[in-house]
Amino acid sequence: MRAGGAEQGSGDGEKRGRKASKETRRQQLIEATIDSLAKRGYSDTTLADVADGAGLSRGIVNFHFESKENLLIATLQYMSEEYGDHWNAALEKAGPSVASRLWAIVHADFDRKICTKRKLAAWCAFWGEAKSRPTYQALCGARDVKYQETVISLCTELKAEGGYAYEPEPMALSLCAMLEGLWLRLMMGDGTTREKALEAAIAFVAIAFPKHLTIQGPQPQ
Fold this sequence. Notes:
The protein is mainly α. It contains nine helices and two strands. Strands 1-2 form a two-stranded antiparallel ribbon. Keywords: DNA-binding, Repressor, Transcription, Transcription regulation.
């Protein structure tokens, strides 16, 4: 019984090892794709570039993704999920206060994990292709809608608590456009830093919601 169990355990361990290796290689290739998009752009990124960047054979790329389009779709899906998971985690960690949740969602956009030069450049490459590629729009569409609905909900709560004169949906649109605009400035490399972009975003929300936020943080409840 013990011997048989040991053999079965060994087999399970090998299977887990192979599975982990497959997942690790896929992640290596996705990270190398982000690097190539940042360095070369969308059109000039090739499977050979990705393989070389990951330090893997070109056959491994073909084995995991079969085509450049499949690799790019997997990369966009990974980035979209990473971004969505990041701001959702920030909201959960912020607690029940609406001011703290808004503060958290603004900071999440400029966190070092998400807001890096290579990832911003990769996003820019995908955005440049999104209009002509419905698959890209579909991949991010549901998450974009959820984000927009979340910001509208926050603006609705802030209005109810603070008696502000704005309408929640237009205010939410303004807030999202401001955050996206700061990301674009960072992508353009015009000298705007991540820290300066966050400072600008904080200034915006402090002016828009003065009863809830200052540039130092949420107002005491």
